[in-house]
Design brief:
Layout: E1 2-3, E2 31-32, H1 35-45, H2 61-65, H3 93-106, E3 111-118, E4 124-130, E5 138-144, H4 152-166, H5 173-176, E6 178-183, H6 211-222, E7 229-235, E8 239-242, H7 254-272, E9 277-280, H8 281-284, H9 292-298, E10 304-310, H10 324-344, E11 360-365, E12 370-374, H11 379-388, H12 401-406, H13 432-445, E13 450-457, E14 463-469, E15 477-483, H14 490-505, H15 512-515, E16 517-522, H16 527-535, E17 546-547, E18 550-551, H17 589-599, E19 604-613, E20 617-620, H18 632-650, E21 655-658, H19 659-662, H20 670-676, E22 682-688, H21 702-722
Parallel strand pairs: 1-2, 5-6, 5-7, 7-10, 8-9, 15-16, 15-19, 19-22, 20-21
Antiparallel strand pairs: 3-4, 4-6, 8-10, 11-12, 13-14, 14-16, 17-18, 20-22
Helix pairs in contact: 4-10, 7-10, 14-21, 18-21
């Protein structure tokens, strides 16, 4: 604690009212500036104070103040003029506000200045928002100047904001995926801990009695913005503290907050060699009640809350201007480390109600429209954003929660294995273990008709199981059916298991066009994601592979044909994007398992059906281009036959057309690959119900949806039987065909330098049309066997098959 007087010449005025301004309460013996005057006054008030060993800490406050050389330039007249702002000296409020407005003027798409309240003396409180307007950004609050005398805090805060704005395009994603709310002079009051109005720690008459703290509460608590990080800058202890300050009990997230603070402290040390201590306030400073960090964590529910005490222990509040930039730079490294830690360590709030987690979740895209789900508190913000950009919209579902309840699934936060005793039915949606047990039970009950095998394992090691239904005839044609490549589409798995159950139990009554097929059925292509939708995030779309700071690949953008075409329009190379295609074709074990199962089956596949939801459409290639596929008319006709059967069964109308025409560009899809590479002539993706309920189809509609799909599949088989002579069966032996060739009107650019059929580099293709390797050559003449990825390492000889594993 440091004690000083305002003016040596006004000693007499303070004989009965000594001014005590405590810089840092660490339990030390008082260190006195004007020891004679303070000693005399304190002795008259408290004779028990131990002042005999007190020594002057700063001999002359007035001379020390000269270190600041504070200059107050005129406020810039134009908003674009920020010449008065620099980090070589300290500035007053007008200069800081002019600087904020200049950023808004010069970077209107990135910066905005928003008034948030009026101080007790009538000054406007302004906040600088830095954002690229991505609605999925996580908000970060960073304030300074809550204690007016801590000048270094606003200097550091403005430096960080300025750096982010000027370097936004080159900054790492941990900066750019945030919405920064920066307030450089938040208040002109003190810390709350005393009921005495004369105390520097007077807490006010009641919580939020002051307009400054009320303005903060309104934004953090009542704005609907769900902040991820709260940082408040102070001086001068060189410590990083986190909740709680008002009690000895550790906060529930102590370890996570400790790890984040440690990362920050480490970054500072690596930057300048300065050591910032880390811990809760009671451990590294003192007990403090009513602090902004405790409130932000405990009441506003912000998961990462920190108070950073800046430099310096030597100079206290009087940090020389020469140290401003160095202090700014070390804290910038500190904030970078925190943002990186936050992104790499997502807060896993147990989602016991299975409510959607992301703020904005893309459900469906079509040519001219998109369905998105918005987290309740953010709905107003998103609506305003759409309105500002003149984007028309309408509310389709006012409240998703009741629909989740109607699905009839209760969260089970346990690993559901094959030993589950839950019976299989179609009155509700089931976990992975129940589905796998159902498949095994069919194989056990009908061993001459059914068999179950594991075709691969997921990223997290779960089995990807396939049910094969076959009477064992060697000339049967193959039908592939899969579901849950996008795990949130629960109805797809329910429908496919129903179809499988009906095929097996009524097999003896089925017509020849059903029984002369070998049925390959994979109810859950993405087992990791499927389980994740039951335990964490109901709306999860991708698998659970980790790439950098992000999780998941959209498996239906990870197949080789057309992979990466249309750039960001057909898929994305951003791991954070919901349509992330992965680093290369078949990079994921789930898609590689499908490829291997089809290519090694030794069966003449005729049909490929992948079930999704929602949209009530039947779509076929192409997705990567708007050009029609070679058998467009035939595909359209067969699809129409399915749609008609569905309408006759239930009255529901499913649209039919190419992926691009009915939905959007989609590159690297399973249907494009199965048609072009695996040469399966009838390749369809069936988007199931329902337009009204979206992904949250009530459990009461499972059976009726399954029945209409079963009718559609049966009609497709009947159609194929009638036109079998028009389109000969395709023999797929390691994805090679002796007689069937797909001619692509417009080949993807990445394919242009590679063998069209095997997808390998042309140098490994020894076709009869070599060396040009025309895209219309027969695949029988290509020696790059078992090679369908877009690799460039294949260099096999004409007499040896390609040995590249893909």
């Amino acid at each position: 604690m440091v004690v000083y007087t305002k003016d040596e010449n006004q000693k007499d005025n303070y004989k009965n009212n000594v001014l005590l301004d405590m810089y840092n309460d660490s339990g030390e013996i008082l260190r006195i500036i004007d020891s004679n005057f303070i000693y005399q006054n304190l002795i008259t008030r408290n004779e028990n104070l131990d002042l005999y060993n007190a020594k002057p800490l700063i001999e002359d406050v007035e001379s020390k103040n000269k270190l600041h050389s504070l200059k107050i330039p005129d406020t810039p007249k134009q908003k674009a003029n920020d010449q008065g702002m620099n980090w070589n000296e300290y500035h007053n409020l007008d200069v800081i506000y002019a600087w904020m407005e200049s950023l808004e003027y010069n970077y209107p798409s990135l910066c905005s200045v928003i008034p948030i309240g009026i101080t007790i003396e009538g000054r406007t409180m302004k906040i600088l928002k830095i954002s690229n307007s991505d609605v999925q950004n996580e908000p970060v609050w960073i304030d300074a100047g809550i204690h007016g005398r801590e000048w270094i805090a606003p200097a550091v805060n403005t430096f960080i904001a300025n750096y982010i704005v000027l370097n936004f395009k080159s900054l790492p994603s941990c900066f750019t995926n945030k919405d920064w709310q920066v307030i450089s002079y938040f208040g002109w009051g003190g810390r709350h801990s005393s009921t005495d109005p004369s105390s520097a720690f007077f807490r006010g008459r009641e919580p939020f009695s002051e307009p400054e703290s009320t303005a903060m509460k309104d934004i953090l608590m009542n704005s609907g913005i769900k902040f991820k990080v709260y940082v408040t800058l102070h001086s001068f202890g060189q410590v990083i503290v986190f909740p709680f300050g008002y009690r000895d009990e550790l906060c529930p997230d102590y370890m996570r907050l400790l790890q984040g603070a440690t990362a920050m402290s480490k970054a500072i040390f690596r930057s300048t060699g300065n050591v910032y201590k880390v811990g809760i306030s009671r451990d590294v400073m003192y007990g403090a009640s009513g602090t902004s960090t405790d409130w932000s964590y405990g009441a506003a529910k912000i998961p990462y809350c920190y108070l950073i005490e800046l430099r310096s222990k030597e100079h206290k509040f009087e940090l020389p201007k020469e140290e401003i930039k160095e202090n700014c730079k070390e804290v910038l490294h500190c904030i970078h480390a925190l943002m990186d830690f936050v992104d790499k360590n997502p807060v896993d709030n147990e989602n016991t109600n299975l409510s959607p987690v992301p703020t904005v979740n893309i459900w469906k895209e079509e040519r001219s429209s998109m369905d998105i789900m918005v987290e309740g508190p953010k709905s107003t913000q998103v609506a305003e954003l759409l309105y500002e950009r003149s984007i028309p919209f309408a509310v389709a579902i006012g409240d998703v929660a009741p629909m989740l309840d109607r699905e009839g699934v209760k969260p089970k936060h346990r690993k559901c294995g094959t030993g589950s005793k839950v019976p299989m039915d179609w009155k509700s949606y089931h976990r992975l273990g129940v589905i796998y047990e159902f498949m095994e039970s069919l194989a056990a009950e009908w061993p001459t008709l059914c068999s179950v095998c594991t075709i691969g394992r997921s990223v997290e090691g779960r089995a990807i199981k396939m049910l094969k239904i076959s009477n064992g005839r060697c000339n049967n044609e193959g039908v592939w059916m899969d579901a849950a490549i996008h795990p949130r589409e629960w109805i797809s798995t329910a429908v496919l298991t129903y179809v499988a159950d009906q095929l097996v139990r009524t097999y003896d009554q089925q017509p020849d066009y059903i029984t002369n097929k070998d049925w390959f059925i994979v109810p859950v292509v993405n087992p990791d994601g499927y389980e994740y939708t039951h335990t964490h995030d109901r709306m999860w779309r991708k698998n659970r592979a980790r790439y950098g700071e992000c999780y998941g690949v959209d498996l239906n953008r990870n197949f080789s044909y057309g992979w990466g075409e249309r750039d960001e329009e057909g898929s994305s190379d951003d791991p954070a994007n919901i349509f992330y295609r992965g680093p290369e074709p078949f990079s994921e074990p789930e898609t590689a398992a499908i490829r291997q199962a089809i290519c090694s089956a030794g069966t003449k596949f005729k049909v490929f059906l992948s079930f999704h939801s929602y949209g009530e459409v039947i779509i076929f290639p192409w997705g990567y281009t708007g050009d029609p596929c070679p058998h467009y008319v035939q595909m359209l006709e067969a699809g129409t036959a399915m749609a008609k059967a569905i309408q006759q069964a239930s009255g529901h109308i499913y649209k039919v057309g190419s992926t691009k025409d009915l939905m959007y560009y989609a590159s690297g899809t399973s249907t494009d690959w199965s048609y072009a590479v695996a040469n399966i002539p009838y390749s369809y993706m069936v988007e199931l119900r329902g337009k009204r309920h979206r992904f949250l189809l009530p459990k009461e509609e499972i059976v009726c949806t399954s029945i209409e799909v079963l009718c559609g599949v049966s009609k497709l088989m009947e159609y194929i039987e009638k036109f079998n002579k028009v389109t000969p069966a395709i023999s797929v032996e390691s994805c090679q065909s002796p007689s069937y060739t797909v001619k692509v009107p417009r080949t993807p650019s990445w394919v242009s330098a590679r063998c069209h059929s095997c997808r390998s580099s042309r140098s490994c293709c020894k076709s009869s049309r070599s060396p040009s390797c025309s895209r219309s050559h027969s695949r029988q003449s290509c020696n790059a066997q078992k090679c369908d990825s877009a690799h460039s390492k294949c260099r096999s000889s004409p007499t040896k098959p390609c040995n590249f594993s893909g």
